[in-house]
Model the fold of this input.
Amino acid sequence: MTALLEVRDLAKTFEVSAPWLNRVIERRPRLFVHAVDGVSFSIERGRTLALVGESGCGKSTVARLLVGLYQPTRGDVRFDGQPTDSQQNAAGLRTLRRRMQMIFQDPYASLNPRWKVLDIVGEPLREHGLAPTPAALRARVGELLHSVGLAAADGEKFPHQFSGGQRQRISIARALATQPEFLVCDEPTSALDVSVQAQVLNIMKDLQRERGLTYLFISHNLAVVRHVADQVGVMYLGRLVELADKAELFARPRHPYTRMLLDAIPDIHMSGRSRTPVQGEVPNPLQPPSGCAFHPRCPHANARCAAERPALTVFQGVQVACHAVQEGRL
Amino acid sequence: MTSPLLEVRNLRVEFPTRRGTLLALDDISFDIAPGEILGVVGESGAGKSLTGAAIIGLLEPPGRIAAGEIRLAGRRIDNLPYEQMRAIRGRQIGAIFQDPLTSLNPLYTIGRQLTETILTHLPVSAEEARQRAIRLLQETGIPAAEQRIDQYPHQFSGGMRQRVVIALALAAEPKLIVADEPTTALDVSIQAQIISLLKRLCKDHGAAVMLVTHDMGVIAETCDRVAVLYAGRVAEIGPVGDVIHRPSHPYTTGLMGSIPAMDEDRERLLQIDGAMPRLNAIPSGCAFNPRCPQVMDRCRRDRPELFDAGATRAACWRVAEHEVRT
Done:
């Protein structure tokens, strides 16, 4: 198997400094947030990689970097062996864009309320010149709506006439319009109720099976991730702390943060699992802790963890960034 | 059996609109015993938050209680004048809302907000109130409470703010706490801290809790009993273990099956087709009948009441006829 998407040392820094005048008068330094800081992974064709983490860990920034909504500060993204940055010419980029699409979290904000569904789903077709005539466009949109469980006649309606789950299906239909190979899904079900979430997750799995789609699935919900993913990457303050196959990660979480996340999930089956109490909160990303970013909350941290940043290295077939795991203390 | 702390009987909440009256809550009845935690669960629009708002007397106009009654420790509270209800709110019923940032006043220090609540409801001096506020903050696990009491809400993180809101709800030692989605705005690791805190404090203070949430995991971890709402009606109510593991109502079964589980592998999730009806288009008979896999003729015609189904009570004709297949 070859990797469809390869990400090497990807980083994105945002400047959050005070305005120039304030900096000069109050002698304040420039401030930067390292939203994503050296993330590397690859996704094989037809597979799903899920990125999980708490608010502010950089998972959505990774999603936006992949589809080109942000320009990376460092590192590169290769799609099917081709670069996706400025080295690529405009026509090449356009072709690449057609092959990767994105589904956003909030189906209320990501659909233009003044457009009919036909125009929303048809826009990528028009933009990429994939529908030669209006009739062909209409027929293609009808097919797309049908593939996500809506009726072709729904094309004449406006987004406000649909429920949240139906709107998310419209977003999926729009993302599928250009027949992409790769979909970036940024929390696609977080705004939905559980029964509707089940409908959307089922559709996404069916489409993946039928069309051999590759997904990057961003979520904070580990139970959802466990249901959809093949591989899982756990992020903390802009870095990957663990990257493993799903079965391995859920059966034998290595990194203390992964263990903590798994322990924190409310257990619906009340199996009486023992829980390690979770301490503290995510630190301020403007002043990330030295060394391992997780060390102030980690029950296994020692002096080395506070001083030296652990690198993501392979350990028993799993990539993990933790001194305690590598030293065999854990 | 002890008499219930809160009794809700045949509660009906209406919203009069130009295009007719919307029935948001229809014939809701349940009890909460002293010290008990009752979960109220349902999807968006099921009426769970409205139930909480009706109990604390904070229904947004034009919503109004059209029928039924609410009793707190035997005393009827749904028809009290505004000033009397204001005295009960805070003193006897504490409230915790979803978003901790909007439930705290950004212009006052948290100490001022806490002491104000304590002084309003309890006969103590200002100094005693302050000591009490510090003790409450310590109880909710806020480090350096003596210093932090003089800080403003924006100086606290989301999890810490929700701790302050819990301290505020407990300030006057109420017997009942209405918590509306207290952990929904928080990250999972913080959510676990807040749930265990809420559970421990309510036990220490002997307060009963009505916990409104859409998260079945939170319900399973926290509650003694659970009421499942659908389209403004109670679909099923009973001990939490029975509702989760041996649900009787087909809606509860579907809801449980649609949640991705951490300990089993399924290729597909159980799916309830369709969506909850809008309030202006609630079907006749059982509100769930258009989506129900086990629908019968009678379900489309007559509305089921709550029938005994083993340990739980469910509003389903199949239950009435002992025919539920699971």
